[in-house]
Amino acid sequence: MVTQELEAYIQNQLQQGQSKEAIVQSLLQNNWDQQDIDESFLHLQTNNPNPLSEIPDALHSRGTTRSDLISNIVLKSSQTNSYSSLFTLIPLIIIVTSVLIYYVTKGLPWWIALIFISFMVLIAFLRVDLVKRVNSINLYAQTGVKSNIGIAVDQNETVQVTAAGIQHSEGIIQGVSFLGKGKDFHPENALLVTQTHIHAIVVPLAGAGQIINQTDINMTNLIFARKDIQNKLQEMLNSQSLLQILQSNPANYSISLTTVTAVSASGWQQKITFKLQDRKKYTYFIRDKSDFSNLKTYFHIV
Questions:
Q1: Coil, strand or helix: which one is 144?
Q2: What gap in Å lies between CA 238 and CA 192, rounded to an integer?
Q3: What is the pTM of this model?
Q4: Could you count the other beta carbons within 10 Å of the beta carbon of residue 156?
Q5: CA-to-CA distance for 13 and 19, rounded, in angstroms?
Q6: Which member of 65, 92, 238, 242 has the lowest number of beta carbons within 10 Å of its beta carbon?
């Protein structure tokens, strides 16, 4: 069971610069339960007034990435909010129903009361559905909209330049969410440039391609966990062939360089745009300045 004493101790140790591993070891030696310790760390993260920008490295357990922590914080917060919205509605329904019944006995037409009660019941059903949908979210499932472009790999094709942490910025709407759960229209978060193609891929991180309670996890990973994208991408390049990487997610796609008529860059926005023969444009925001600079150099953009 999480206690204020335990949380206060952990918070104090973190502020003094102690690592999570050292804190956990000390607590276990003093007969604290492992589950209570884990719950206390999670509770501290969830109640951080600005959790996404202030997750200390000391909270990173071995094998746990920053993207894991961020996604779980967002999901846990959404689950808590969904339950809270449902439970706060119940007494309101009881009060409104009681008031309406009273006024019906005083002469209020019954159909007016029925309309109000039906409306409240509908809201309750939607809140229950919200709870179900949020609790059904799997942070590690493949999501996002399937690409209709397809993938292509030429013989002896090799990666020349990479960009880890990108966002496809074409279009106003990046995704859609309904009752706490949604998908990103453009889940790709990395570019692989070869001699013949530009490959846009989804590097599999927790919550990639998902929108949870209006929070675009791709965007939070882009801002706060770019190194995780970079590390995971490097791991993929070291352990998989280019074809295997492209086949790893249905949202991945390839653009042939033979169809690219122009490449331009917006320096202050760190965006690069590829214009194709069919007049389509693909514009990407590049999070890392060095990645942006490497792309400009490769495509000879002044």
A1: coil
A2: 14
A3: 0.73
A4: 8
A5: 8
A6: 238
